[in-house]
Amino acid sequence: MKLENDLYYYPWTSLTENNCNSYFIGGDVPTLIDTGHKHCVKSLISLLERDGLDPKKIKLIINTHAHPDHFEGNQVLIGNGAMIAIHKEEDIFLRGLGGRMYKMFGLELPESKIEFYLKDGDLKLGKHELQIYHTPGHSPGSISIYWPEKKALITGDVVFEQGVGRTDFPGCDGGLLKKSIEKLSRLDVEYLLPGHGNIIVGKTEVEQNFDFIKRAIFPYM
Q1: What is the CA radius of gyration of the chain?
Q2: Mean per-residue pLDDT, 119-135
Q3: What are the extents of the domains in the chain?
Q4: What contacts 34, CB < 8 A, 6 or more positions away?
Q5: Mean pLDDT calculated for residue range 160-182
Q6: Is residue 79 scored above 80 in pLDDT?
Q7: How confident is the model over 130-162, as pLDDT tens digits?
Q8: E-strand spans in the chain?
Q9: Of 45, 98, 145, 214, which alpha carbon lies 20 to 30 A from 182's?
C-alpha cells in the first residue's frame, strides 16, 4: 500500500497468526524495514510485486529489533544480495538472551550476517535522509526510524495505536521504554507506523495517541 512517494506500508492483518507490519522505502537504495516470520515472506513478496516493486532489487534490510516476528524472514531475502542492518546492542542481545528466545518459540536462529550497525543520527539512503533513534525497552537494541521529509515515524514494537511493546520478555525494561516513548513523542509526526496493528495518520491523532499512552499506560509500566 503506497502512503507517499517512495513510502509503502504492508500490514499483517491475520487474526490467527502473529507477524509484523513491514515498510518499504524506494529510491536509489530500495530498503525493506522488518521482514517478519520466514513463512510469511511469500505473502509480503506478493504484496510488493502487486505495487510494482521488485523484491530482488532490495539493497538493504533494516530490522527495528531482532525478535522472530520481525527478523526471521531476513534469510529468505538476503539471497539477492541485500545487506542487513540492526543496532549493535540488538546484535549482542541476539547472540545471547535474544537467540534463546527463538528456541523458546520452537524456532531456529536464522543465519543472517549483519553488514553494519545502526546508531543514533542520520542515515542517508541515496537522496533520502532518515534519522535513527535508539529506543530500548522492548528489547535492548530496538530502534525507531524517522523520515523528516515525510514526517513519518516507524516505531517497531516501541509504540502502537493505544499501546506499547511488551516488557515481559528477556531483555525488556519498562523504565527504558517509557524514556524511549517520551523521546519519540517530541518529534513532528504525521504518520506513526508501528510494528503491529493500525497506522495513525495526522499530527493531531498522533499527539493524542502519545497523550493516551502517557496517561493510561505509563502508570502501569
Answers
A1: 16
A2: 97
A3: 2-220
A4: 20, 21, 22, 23, 62, 63, 64, 70, 71, 156, 195
A5: 96
A6: no
A7: 999 999 999 999 999 999 999 999 999 999 999
A8: 2-4, 7-10, 22-25, 31-33, 60-62, 83-87, 116-118, 121-125, 128-134, 143-147, 152-156, 159-160, 163-164, 191-194, 200-201
A9: 98
Residue 113 has a pLDDT of 85
SS3 203: helix
**Which residues make beta-bridge pairs with 59?**
none
| For residue 177, pLDDT beyond 90 | yes
Amino acid in position 137: G
Tell me the pLDDT band of 180, cut-offs 50, 70 and 90.
very high
- Domain 2-220: CATH superfamily is Ribonuclease Z/Hydroxyacylglutathione hydrolase-like (3.60.15.10)
Name the one residue in this structure whose C-alpha cell is 550497525. 117
